[in-house]
Amino acid sequence: MNINLITYASGLDKLTATTKIHEKTLAELEIQFDVKYFTPTEIEHIPKENLSILFIASGGVEQQIAKDIEKLPRPIILLADGLQNSLAAALEVSSWLRERGIKNEILHGDIFDIKKRIVHLGINYNVQNQLKTQRIGVFGTPAPWAIASGVDYFLAKQRWGVKFVNIPLMRLYEVYNQIEDGEVSTLCTNFSSTAYSSQEITPKALVKSMKLYKAIRQICDEEQLTGTTLNCYKTLAELGVTGCVANSLLNNEGIVSGCEGDLQTIFTLIMSRALTRQTGFMCNPNKIDFKENKLILGHCSIATQQTSHFILRNHFSGKDSITIQGLLPLGEYTLIKCGGECLDKYFVSSGYLLDNTETEPSSRTEVLFKMNENADYFLRNPLGNHHVMVRGNHESLFKSFLEAHSCKRIK
């Protein structure tokens, strides 16, 4: 991990002497990080792809930092080891910044705790930069029942940098209708051969699902989309095919894809993948045991790469369309949702996937999950019905990232 260290010290012409005084602190940083050193006069030439830290090497630098405030890279992180009155200066600067509405953080104390925090801050910084490059294709309007899952495009762009791009379904249908059945025959054979088994499906349904995947993928390439969400019930009514297979394959390829035009959940999927490098499972509760904090979570599609194995099934409301029943590895998972119209709220709970179940016909992929948080959240203040389940315990990682962006945790 690379970090930029901008050194503020009174009398910067004596930088060598300053470095020697703080030799122990700097040596510890260099053990773990590739440290690039800069003076305040070099701020405008600092590489923006790396996290920057202001190293307060002495007192008497407050006015200099105030003068540079417009040029300082964000977020503003102040590192002070306490030598040469550096902590006092950092406290004064921090207070001055907060009075002007500029969020900042002081790193001080045990060097190993400092290094651990720098790692978290570096992850947050890199993910934020990734989010600024995201173009999410919204294919059609959200499903009519997703009334609490909308996003204000402008506010989302301001807060996170993501861009939502509306793609009319008619454009998708035009591309879909131009694809000949024979163009997807190899894709169908290769995909079906990786399934554990196939139940209730027809070759025609598989061809239609693969044509929809190919059509969405073509538009993703044309529009440079990094994520998609599809009103799949609209395509079921008008084309006779859902996006279950398409979403699964796109997620396998790193184009994060969600169902039902749910904008809040597609953002959650994209954010969670950027943080954990894993594809999440978009799901909703089918049943909740509040005494045991256990949930039955399910949905009609999942990225096949997440599964131990998977079965091709028909869709519960469209028997001629294909869904995916995935069997997931048991163990520790995290349930996460970022919600609100400007994506400024979140819920997170670590827990354990106890079993793969099959109780609700509408959810081909279904699991029993025990939350570490109180399941009453779903009755008191839920962030919609869809949530995202990611393998592993990432609760502290999500919390650190979202709270760094002033998101409110819902319990």
Note down, in words, how this protein is organized.
There is one protein chain. By secondary structure, the chain is α/β, with parallel strands linked by helices. It has 14 helices and 19 strands. It has two domains: 2-131, Rossmann fold (3-Layer(aba) Sandwich), CATH 3.40.50.10940; 135-409, L-fucose Isomerase, Chain A, domain 2 (3-Layer(aba) Sandwich), CATH 3.40.275. The chain has helices spanning 15-21, 23-32, 62-67, 86-99, 111-131, 153-160, 169-178, 185-193, 203-223, 232-239, 244-252, 263-276, 377-380, 395-404, and strands at residues 2-8, 34-38, 51-56, 76-79, 104-107, 135-139, 163-167, 197-198, 227-230, 256-259, 281-289, 294-299, 309-315, 318-327, 331-339, 345-356, 365-371, 387-391, 408-409. A hairpin with a 4-residue loop joins strand 11 (281-289) and strand 12. The longest helix is centred in the N-terminal third of the chain and has 21 residues, at 111-131. It starts with a strand and ends with a strand. 42% of the residues are buried.
